[in-house]
Amino acid sequence: MAEFDFLIIGAGMAGASAGYALASQARVLILEQEDQPGYHTTGRSAALYAETYGNATVRALTTGGKGFYLNPPSGFAAHPLLLPRGVVFIGRADQRASLDAFLEEVSGLRSNIRRIAAAEVETQVPVFRPGYVADAVLDPDAMDIDVHGLHQGYLKGLKARGGQLVTDAQVRGLSRQAGLWQVESKAGRFAARVVVNAAGAWADEIGALAGAAPIGLVPKRRTAIRFRPPAGLDVARWPTIIDADEQFYFRPDAGQILASPADETPMPPCDVQPEDLDIAILVDRLEQVVTLPIPRIESRWAGLRSFVADKTPVVGYDDRIEDFFWLAGQGGYGIQTAPGIAALVEALARHEPVPPELEALGVTEAALSPIRLR
Ligand SMILES: Cc1cc2nc3c(=O)[nH]c(=O)nc-3n(C[C@H](O)[C@H](O)[C@H](O)COP(=O)(O)OP(=O)(O)OC[C@H]3O[C@@H](n4cnc5c(N)ncnc54)[C@H](O)[C@@H]3O)c2cc1C
What is the per-residue pLDDT for 160? Predict the structure, then answer.
């Protein structure tokens, strides 16, 4: 039976990035239940990178990975992983308090995060209904992520470092024998020193196979659509627009407009599909905000964003199950935080301290540890 140092369950962004990081010094195997790595949440994201999005720990992990995004190792990706976009958080007059609170939280991050006038937003994105936007906050450094390029870069890099990925390999059983994990999967049996649980929405189910107490993970459905802007309207340079209370967002995407009602419907883990009602809610919300016609929806999808109670990812060893490492609960931030979290996994999985560059940003082991959820 093949034996590994780290056996990672799940080849989404979490498992792929952790596998790449750990394979620099260890024998790594990733088992993925689907034929295609990235089939679930990773392949369904909105590809936003914003250091102003998410709670303080999420923001620190996002900033902590920025260096990797901007300067990945040579040969990692054929194209830049981040492209300039900018994000504007907008509000009606009755949402001013939300924008005040938001600005107070993020204005210390960078000096160019600032309030902008409604007229400036209307000039940049000339489709708002007159008088709708009363207030706005701009983060000009937000970017679009090449999610496929990042994910493939990690998987190619894993292979180049001697790591392995086996697809169509659903993990069905975990047990301990002579200090090693015995992993039963659809693709056969494997042994490993450490199991890394990067199973996305299924992470609590994998925890149960190992005998671990649940972390209280709740997968939440989020829906997105793409539609064409009217002929002659150039949307390419629009920033991403996010409602101050996250009731919707939209942004240009390869000549079309990607939009979401920012829904968060709790669901059991599954191959989630979009619901007509969520799309109707989105179209209704957009009609109140912009004058854009939506004659035809070109594509629609949904994915599961999985959260624990404090909306902070769960990264670290279980305190009761030996050599069982959690890498879950990335919520709506698992792409932008991936390089930062991968650096953290590399250290914590080897029982080393939080890397200094993450520590300097305020990342602590305790804030991410599964033990905080007991
Ligand atoms: C609509 C939408 C918009 C989003 N927008 C953004 C955004 O703008 N920016 C951002 O940073 N994030 C965004 N996200 C969140 C981001 O996509 C997720 O945080 C991230 O993809 C989570 O990655 P993951 O690897 O944990 O999960 P997944 O990609 O779901 O990977 C988990 C993998 O585990 C596998 N697995 C499960 N059980 C088993 C088993 N028993 N055996 C083997 N394999 C198993 C699954 O098949 C799956 O491939 C968005 C998500 C959605 C749905």
Answer: 98
Q: What share of the chain is helix, strand, coil (3-state, %, to 5)?
A: 30, 30, 40
Q: In angstroms, what is the span from residue 80 Cα to ligand 1's centroid?
A: 22
Over residues 259-263, the mean pLDDT reads: 98
- Which bin fits 8, alpha (ψ -120 to 50), beta or left (φ > 0)? beta
Distance in angstroms (rounded) separating the CA atoms of residues 8 and 41:
17
Sheet bearing 48-49, strands edge to edge? 48-49, 143-145, 82-84
Q: Is the pLDDT of residue 1 over 90?
A: no
For residue 14, give the ligand 1 atom closest to its CA: 25
- Residue 260's CATH number: 3.30.9.10
Q: Is there a domain that residue 283 lies in?
A: yes
> Structure tokens of 278?
């969520």
| pLDDT > 70 in the chain, percent | 100
> Is the CB of residue 120 below 6 angstroms from any atom belonging to ligand 1?
no
Q: How far apart are CA 42 and CA 369, in angstroms?
A: 23
Whether 154 shows a pLDDT value over 80: the answer reads: yes
Query: Which atom of ligand 1 lies at the shortest distance from residue 301's CA?
Result: 1
307: nearest Cα among 11, 57, 31: 57
End-to-end CA distance of the chain: 35
Last residue of a domain, one of 280, 307, 334: 307
The boundaries of the domain holding residue 330 are 3-73+146-216+310-373
